[in-house]
Amino acid sequence: MISRFVSVVFGPHDVGERLDRALAQHLVGEGLSRSQLASLCERGLVRCEGVPLRSSAKVRAGGAAVVVEVPPPEPVRAEAEDIPLRVVFEDRALLVVDKPAGLVVHPAKGHATGTLVNAVLHHAEMDDDDDPLRPGIVHRIDRDTSGLLVIAKTAEAREALAARFKAHDIARQYVALCEGAVPPSVTFDTLYGRHPTDRKRFTGRVREGKRACTHVRGEATFLNGAASLVRCTLETGRTHQIRVHLSEAGFPLLGDVAYGRRPRVEALRPIAAALGRQALHAEVLGFEHPLTGEALRFVSPLPPELAAALAALEALGQP
Fold first, then answer.
1. What's the domain count of the chain?
2. How far apart are the C-alpha atoms of 86 and 192, rounded to whole Å?
3. Which CATH number does the domain housing residue 39 bear?
């Protein structure tokens, strides 16, 4: 399915009205509510002469047509798609995969297809249909983070793994490249929640929220402390947790668009640019098999772009 486009030309009686309200009045027959139109504005899908408009904008006299792009409806169930999948381990209950950067874990707004879940459904028979859009998903990593994920193929395995994640009884270690000289050992233990002014971001600087704890080990520094190689062990697993904790401590990940910055040291800039994503990789995943009790531990090597970035940092020299 593809997007459809609806064009609206406002009249004199619309002048001064909020854009979302005026659009809703004109598009009653299109099945679009004011809140839906406001959401489309936020996504940049309401435009006038190609320029995105804000939902709070006022309709002006003599304006050109406003074009509303209406995306196809989101699916209610994920469908199998033939997408390459790197399988590290598989049995009748579990699937452990090594996710590349750029692959979204499950269908969501703006990513209805082409996700890891779509690939898994093509690869394996899934008995767990508790959530038809996220079958077997018990944890996630960001789209532009690479590394290991465990997926439950049965309802029994999903419930057991979910309980282990809730009890923080899963070993998860990440490797990252960041700015600054990270100490040999530091723990960030904060409250955690959405950023007060940017709802797409998170922060550890809140008065109320859930606990977030990241244990960080600085393993090497480069260019007189301009950058570091670190390994992070998660005690909790909040969205963007490592990226936020390191950034708010003054050690933003190289290549992190949301929480990072243009590197202050010029020599780091081409390295960050070449990455094309944040320098974060889910390197180690360990847990007891939910059915057999066997201790499982998996290690993922650095993907090529991170290995190249580390080699470039090493070439700059260590203190």
1. 3
2. 33
3. 3.10.290.10
54: tokens are 């804000």
d(CA 69, CA 40): 8
CATH number of 124's domain: 3.30.2350.10
198 labelled catalytic: no
What is residue 76's predicted lDDT score, i.e. its pLDDT?
A: 67
- In angstroms, the first-to-last Cα distance of the chain is 56
Residues 85/120, Cβ–Cβ less than 8 Å: yes
Last residue within a domain, chosen from 167, 190, 223: 167
Full domain range(s) for residue 217: 170-319
Angle, nearest 10°, between helix axes 34-42 and 19-26? 130
Q: State the Cα–Cα distance between residues 131 and 137, nearest whole angstrom.
A: 9
Buried b vs exposed e over 169-196: b needs ≥16 C-beta within 10 Å? ebebbbbbbbbbbbeeebebebebbeee
Residue with tokens 């486009």: 5
Phi–psi pair at 261, nearest 5 degrees = -160, 170
**Are both 83 and 108 inside the same structural domain?**
yes
| pLDDT at residue 1 in the model | 59
Spell out, as residue ranges, where the chain has pLDDT lower than 50. Answer: none
Q: Which of these is catalytic: 142, 144, 169, 198?
A: 142
The answer to whether residues 131 and 206 belong to one domain is no
Phi, psi of 308 (to 5 degrees): -65, -40
pLDDT tens per residue across span 4-37: 899 999 988 899 999 999 999 999 888 888 988 9
Instruction: Specify whether 162 is located in the same domain as 174.
Output: no
Looking at 19, 39, 70, the residue that finishes a domain is: 70
Residues 6+ apart with CB under 8 A from 56: 18, 19, 20
Taking the complete model, does pTM exceed 0.90, yes or no? no
- Tell whether 117 and 177 lie within a shared domain: no
Return the structure tokens found at 12.
């004199």
Q: What pLDDT shows up at residue 319?
A: 62
**How confident is the model over 169-181, as pLDDT tens digits?**
999 999 999 999 9
